[in-house]
UniProtKB/TrEMBL annotation:
Pathway: Amino-acid biosynthesis; L-proline biosynthesis; L-proline from L-glutamate 5-semialdehyde: step 1/1. It is an enzyme of class 1 (oxidoreductase). It is found in: Cytoplasm. NADPH binds at residue 61. The keyword NADP applies. Residues 6-85 form the Pyrroline-5-carboxylate reductase catalytic N-terminal domain. This is Pyrroline-5-carboxylate reductase. Gene3D superfamilies: NAD(P)-binding Rossmann-like Domain (3.40.50.720), ProC C-terminal domain-like (1.10.3730.10). It holds the Pfam family F420_oxidored. One of its GO terms (biological process) is L-proline biosynthetic process. It catalyses: L-proline + NADP(+) = (S)-1-pyrroline-5-carboxylate + NADPH + 2 H(+); L-proline + NAD(+) = (S)-1-pyrroline-5-carboxylate + NADH + 2 H(+). It comes from Helicobacter cappadocius. InterPro entries: 6-PGluconate_DH-like_C_sf (IPR008927), NAD(P)-bd_dom_sf (IPR036291), P5C_Rdtase_cat_N (IPR028939), P5CR-like_CS (IPR053790), P5CR_dimer (IPR029036), Pyrroline-COOH_reductase (IPR000304). Residues 157-258 form the Pyrroline-5-carboxylate reductase dimerisation domain.
Amino acid sequence: MKKTLLFVGYGSMAKAIACGIASSDLKTKYVIEIAGRDPKKAQNFIRENHLENIATIHSNNSLINVNEKIVMLCVKPYALGNFQYQGNASSVYSVMAGVDIATLKEHIHSNHYAKVMPNVGARYQKSSTAVCVQGDIKEEASEILSSFGKAVFVDSEALVDASIATGGSSPAFLALIAQALVDAGVREGIRREDALNLVRATFDGFAHLLLEQTPDEIISSITSPGGTTIEGLYVLEDKAVRGAIISACHEAVAKSKKKH
């Protein structure tokens, strides 16, 4: 008998995770339910993401039956209390930044909880996901979370929030860097479409390099004495770009702690 994965919420993160699972082998082991305030939005979510074969809409908008279901809480932190949760969930997974497991226990009953921080790469089974579990669900958590990317188990909930810097928010920061590189290419005379394709290929190649080398090793392998790359790196260091990135990540993590 298939287990039920109940998604509460149908935003971008729910979309990424559900599509990642639907593209993996787990689609043969689980059925998906979508719950939220607006049935029309839930229906659109299912249709737009081609989930008709494995997903249904939860019948009640505000009273959610979680009994013996694996619950994926994908709502904004302030929306957690907008629903009543009936029954004892098999397990509860929360992607809500800044919401601790103690708070989850006040709203939804279960013996097993997981606080997770995935990112939008989940849609392509390429998420970077930090997870902290309470209860005997590490094997289950590994199976589910690994279906849409790389799962890294950490020792505390605080470290899950900290991973906003390395996973949750970092795709947006990397996108800003990518946009700057595209603009740099245009400034030097490259057509925007060509610049974008070159940057995409560069990021793809860089991802493979990063699997084999540390960032410092990559820099050293490209940088030659008195060369072009070291000249550019000097400007970035002179402008404190590294420090700005670290500060941006720190502020993103700090913001998550103010959300509830």
